[in-house]
Amino acid sequence: MSTTVVQSRRGTRRRPKIEHLDITVLAGGPGAEREVSLNSGQAVEDALRRLGHNVERHDIGPGDLSALERPVDIVFIALHGEFGEDGAIQAILEQRGIAYTGSNAAASRQAMDKAAAKNRFVERGIPTPKYEIIDGRSVVGVESRFSVPAVLKPLSSGSSVDTTIVHTPQALRDMATALVERHGRGLVERCIRGPELTVGVLGHQALPVCEIRTRREFYDYQAKYVDDDTQYLFDLDLPPPLIERVQRLSLAAHRALGCRVFSRVDCMIDAATSEPYFLEVNTIPGFTSHSLVPKAAARLGISFDELCQRIIELSLDAA
């Protein structure tokens, strides 16, 4: 395998040339976002092949790691949610000394755990909606401690799976109980009404801010992956200083969790106060036709293929 000398903050080292790499794309996995992940993996595989790389795409899960037996220059992780975004596959790759794309295991675990991520936001002064962690004990009486409307969501899930907005105290009690029964723990969060924004991060740069508009009550799974009328707007009717603040804080949220290479940061703007509130950082955002990081990169003239290539180069530099 040919190499090239690279200068980085860690000194002089050698890495594979960025052309004609042997790459394994991991997609699918055991989680609830499996179908989305398969679509992402296919799109990434196609892009990397067009770039001239030697690519194989593999499904993977905790019980079958045979996909990692192929010698490669780097693994491109397109696994969303469980086993992919929670640091599990990253830890395995680190143990085996295999280079991979995106954030490391520690950052992935922290970003996937909404409680840990929100605690970190609070520590760093990054505004986030009022929240409470609920489990089998604390779910009792939650309707008396938290006003409605409120948002309920699992602590470690993506794509808005099992996320709901409740409007009455009884619905909060009933839905919170069901959430805890299903997931063990959950998050109840103040519902922010106003524009829903997302910001991609690539390297050390915040990409253009995107506003999401949907006919549904919020940007749920159907709006993300099924609906054709969900709008993604980059020409925003927001003051430039607010847009700049959202970008700056998005980059701060990415860094606060120790993320590297790329991510997508989600936030809401309170329509009454124009204050931004940050919800979460997604360390392996989607790579489908509906996905937002590719859309934002395209606003800067970065094609989908070039985005995949940049992620590989940045990941090799960070390894």
- What CATH calls the topology of the largest domain is D-amino Acid Aminotransferase, Chain A, domain 1
The helix content is 25-40%
Class computed from helices, strands and strand pairing: alpha+beta
Please write the CATH class name of the largest domain.
Alpha Beta
Query: How many whole angstroms does the radius of gyration measure?
Result: 20 Å
Number of strands: 14
Characterize the structure shown.
The chain folds into three domains: 3-102, Rossmann fold (3-Layer(aba) Sandwich), CATH 3.40.50; 111-126 and 193-309, ATP-grasp fold, B domain (D-amino Acid Aminotransferase, Chain A, domain 1, 2-Layer Sandwich); 131-190, Dna Ligase, domain 1. Helices cover 34% and strands 24% of the residues. The protein has helices at residues 34-50, 88-96, 105-112, 114-124, 142-145, 169-183, 221-225, 240-256, 292-299, 304-318, and strands at residues 3-8, 11-16, 22-26, 54-58, 74-77, 131-134, 150-154, 164-166, 186-190, 196-202, 205-213, 231-233, 262-269, 276-282. The strands form four sheets. It has a five-stranded antiparallel sheet. Helix 1 (34-50) packs across helix 10 (304-318). The radius of gyration is 20 Å and the shape is globular. The model is unreliable at 1-14 (pLDDT under 50).
